[in-house]
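Help needed: design a sequence for this.
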């Protein structure tokens, strides 16, 4: 079996012209490097999230691509993202690879994008620009610290990274179900009535109206405000839990 830069290579090129889904995985302790060649023009799903050693340029992404997931060591520029892309995930959660080295601007985000997951991109700190109105989930990495333009009206999940210190629009989207602050965030916000999952960061000091809809709450150690009683809730020194029936 051939080797490439100390990794075992699997030559898959040329890929079938009619291929629509390509998902590869390898044991995290094995440095497997697939050789893909040119991606088929009708490819819709490319998932290399669980191939830790993969770090080759993908070339022009097929216009038909709707879902793209890449592993922790992928560092190649992606170029222009396909207009129909609905999900982009960078990095993976192998126990020993809980990170992503990706550190290139993403350019204009596709107007169809619904999921942008950069949560374990510790190095990524490039402005995202205009967020698509279709976006439902936005997860930012540790170092991301740029202003977010108007949040999409149907956003359901917003996860801020550790270093994020920018202001957000005061009224978060009504559809937001999950809001997790980073440790440095300290800007006033109004929580939406539908919120179910809230994480209050260690630096946050502003009064929050905790909604009855909340089912999971984490309260930072330094939060100086009294917590109102919530139905079916258990309070400890650090965490506030609502019991789920």
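Sure. Designed sequence:
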């Amino acid at each position: 079996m051939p080797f490439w830069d100390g990794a075992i290579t699997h030559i898959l090129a040329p890929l079938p012209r009619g291929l629509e889904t390509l998902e590869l995985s390898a044991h995290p302790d094995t440095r497997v490097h697939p050789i893909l060649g040119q991606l088929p023009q009708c490819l819709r799903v490319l998932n290399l999230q669980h191939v830790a050693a993969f770090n080759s340029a993908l070339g022009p992404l097929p216009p038909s691509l709707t879902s793209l997931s890449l592993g922790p060591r992928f560092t190649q520029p992606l170029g222009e993202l396909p207009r129909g892309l609905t999900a982009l995930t960078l990095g993976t959660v192998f126990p020993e690879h809980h990170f992503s080295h990706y550190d290139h601007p993403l350019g204009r985000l596709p107007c169809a994008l619904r999921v942008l997951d950069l949560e374990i991109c510790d190095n990524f700190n490039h402005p995202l620009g205009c967020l698509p109105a279709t976006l439902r989930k936005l997860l930012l990495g540790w170092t991301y610290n740029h202003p977010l333009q108007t949040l999409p009206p149907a956003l359901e999940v917003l996860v801020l990274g550790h270093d994020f210190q920018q202001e957000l629009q005061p009224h978060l989207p009504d559809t937001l179900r999950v809001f997790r602050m980073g440790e440095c965030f300290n800007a006033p916000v109004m929580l939406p009535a539908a919120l179910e999952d809230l994480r209050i960061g260690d630096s946050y000091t502003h009064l929050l109206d905790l909604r009855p809809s909340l089912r999971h709450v984490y309260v930072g150690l330094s939060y100086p405000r009294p917590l109102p009683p919530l139905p079916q809730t258990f309070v400890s020194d650090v965490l506030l839990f609502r019991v789920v029936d």
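Residues 207 and 225 are 6 Å apart (CA to CA).
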